[in-house]
Specification:
- Two copies of one chain form a homodimer.
- In chain A, strands 1, 2, 3, 4, 5, 6 and 7 form a seven-stranded antiparallel β-sheet that branches.
- Chain A contains four helices and seven strands, in the order αβββαββααββ.
- Chain A has helices spanning about 10-20, 65-75, 105-120, 120-125; strands at about 30-35, 40-45, 55-60, 75-85, 90-100, 155-170, 175-180.
- Chain A is an alpha+beta fold.
- At the A-B interface, strand 1, strand 2, strand 4 and strand 5 of A face strand 1, strand 2, strand 4 and strand 5 of B.
Amino acid sequence: MSSSATAPWKQLLLNSINSNSHLKHSTYFQLATVGYNGRPSNRTVVFRGFQDSTNKIQINTDSRSSKIDDLKRSPFAEVCWYFTETWEQFRIYGKVEMIDASNSDPNKLKQREAAWFAGSVRSRLQYVGPTPGIISLNEQPSHDSLDPSAGPVDAFCLLLLDPDQVDYLNLKSNERLLFSTGRSDNDFTVPDERNQLNLKHMRAKVPLPNL
Amino acid sequence: MSSSATAPWKQLLLNSINSNSHLKHSTYFQLATVGYNGRPSNRTVVFRGFQDSTNKIQINTDSRSSKIDDLKRSPFAEVCWYFTETWEQFRIYGKVEMIDASNSDPNKLKQREAAWFAGSVRSRLQYVGPTPGIISLNEQPSHDSLDPSAGPVDAFCLLLLDPDQVDYLNLKSNERLLFSTGRSDNDFTVPDERNQLNLKHMRAKVPLPNL
């Protein structure tokens, strides 16, 4: 499960994050999962960085949210991350690991704790309120403050998306790059099987089917 | 299949479109589908308006794109549309109808033709090139121009998303609104069954699980 080797798409993504960093929404992306009855589900989440020096993408969520139900059923997700300043799209497909309060691995719990403290105290408050997704008719928040030194509450869950495939599209240059791994410890050298082409770093003009 | 009654969420969405219209990317949203082996898939597409006076959302796509394969397998999709200026998110779930060149209904073919001519001549060129999603190493575009009066090419496909559920979130006001239909001709009066609440127009403070 380790993915310490830096993937070739990672620098590309870091460049995009950097070029768009003046825009608050540049850290937001859409996460698609599959829910009950094979129903597609899609919502905006926030990029919380890479896990240490790995290729794994960190997302914070609430254990009571419906995406957790989805991921327990099927742990795969596809991120669609569109950078509005540079007109770049990253589609990132992979398996998602959930690290919640019930995790038995002390190292995983440490990662969860680090993610908790990396967020603002204000952002931690959302995990203290009533169940997410359920409307509260009580206008008063149930908690106005939280001890800044207190560790993660039960509802706090760290998600780690471990990318298997990355599909990059640049709408200014018409470049497309596909990266995929054969799942031998995240070695991003295997061509995309759907297209049967060797695409590790290939740059080419492509039609733009989506935008 | 008709959906002529204006849904209560539609005016909300039209307001958001209007408030964000100075931003080119405000017409872009992410469309999640379910592909082979139940794999979630997510990509940016462009809003092409509502179909006439209905609640159906129009999207243009290429018949050769992978989203068509997905939708042939499972015709359901969820749009996630985040408005970066007003901090609003619309999650729109529904069934997608595909109208391609092989459609036998003359009215549907007329809708497809109208969608074709509504796009710029330049935008039509993308349907003339090689298969989308497949890298072309040929730097020269195969077609430099297209007769502006020529009707839709074979690859042009109109998608119509007919919303069943709309989940609206305003990150500035902390408002959330859920709309859903019991599928009796798009009458948006039935509460969201997951939450077992009557939510047709309810406004309330909610925790914000995602952002």
